[in-house]
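ARCHIVE CARD
Drawer: 12
Card no.: 0347
Subject: one protein chain, sequence and derived structure
Cross-reference: see card 0346
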Amino acid sequence: MEQQTEQDERFMRQALNEARKAFDEQEVPIGAVVVAEGRVIGRGRNLVETLGDPTAHAEMQALTAATATLGGKYLPQCTLYVTVEPCIMCAGAIAWAQIGRVVWGADDPKKGYRRYSEEVFHPKTTIGRGVLREECEALMGAFFASLRE
């Protein structure tokens, strides 16, 4: 358990690095990494404003990179780390990719997938939440506070 916690924190920090890049680009600061066998095989951050694409969420970018790395559309052996609970669109993509595990930092009661249904992911997918929650929440809070200035 302790080893899993350390690993979760290590990879969530990498997702936070992606989120900080998004923040610096004036994007909603969400970052994601996909991990297989202890190594990152896909990274992503929100690029919605940059690309003018409402589907350019961090999770979508990371999934695309991971499937390209592995050469296939299914990722059952992988873990997706994302700084904020996935939205329903991203949760659908995660389900189609059959990700083995999803770990997020901050809950999103307004736009997170659980607002709509908790049974979106593949039945074998396991979930972890609250990893580095305070840091993930602080980054989101700082971003939205900057918009109100």
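Annotation on reverse: The two ends are 42 Å apart (CA to CA). The mean pLDDT is 95.
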